[in-house]
Amino acid sequence: DAKTTQPNSMESNEEEPVHLPCNHSTISGTDYIHWYRQLPSQGPEYVIHGLTSNVNNRMASLAIAEDRKSSTLILHRATLRDAAVYYCILRDLTSGGSNYKLTFGKGTLLTVNP
Amino acid sequence: KAGVTQTPRYLIKTRGQQVTLSCSPISGHRSVSWYQQTPGQGLQFLFEYFSETQRNKGNFPGRFSGRQFSNSRSEMNVSTLELGDSALYLCASTEEGRNSPLHFGNGTRLTVT
Question: Do B96 and A46 touch (CB under 8 A)?
Answer without folding.
Answer: no
